[in-house]
Specification:
mainly beta; four-stranded antiparallel sheet
Length: 122
């Protein structure tokens, strides 16, 4: 079982930045890949970014590549998502999630946080 608690959402203007955080805990959580997922039009949820605790290898969705950076602080057991050049269409709830699979699809994730709201004003 893995527990995830997000924070850091808020309201920013177009072009602004936010850093989301996710505190991760639970049994053997370091063996999981962790990532960020968000709702998308026509989909239940879409993959945003993921990282492996062990290898540090990251992957990004095309829609955010170049604007977001995912990172993990192993000492603090915390996952981050730095989001820059935010657009109004980025305004959704972002979920931190964990999986034993690769984690480049939203349907691969087994454990979810409660979500944190991001709002980007135009």
């Amino acid at each position: 079982q893995v527990q995830l608690v997000e924070s850091g959402g808020g309201l920013v203007q177009t072009g602004g930045s936010l850093r989301l955080s996710c505190a991760v805990s639970g049994r053997a959580f370091s063996t999981y890949a962790v990532g960020w997922v968000r709702p998308a039009p026509g989909k239940e949820r879409e993959f945003v970014a993921r990282i492996s605790w062990r290898s540090g290898i990251a992957a990004y969705a095309d829609s955010v590549r170049g604007r977001v950076t995912i990172s993990a602080d192993n000492a603090m057991n915390t996952l981050y998502l730095q989001m820059n050049l935010l657009k109004p269409e980025d305004s959704v709830v972002y979920y931190c999630a964990a999986t034993r699979q690769v984690g480049v699809r939203a349907d691969e994730y087994d454990y979810w946080g409660q979500g944190t709201q991001v709002a980007v004003s135009s």
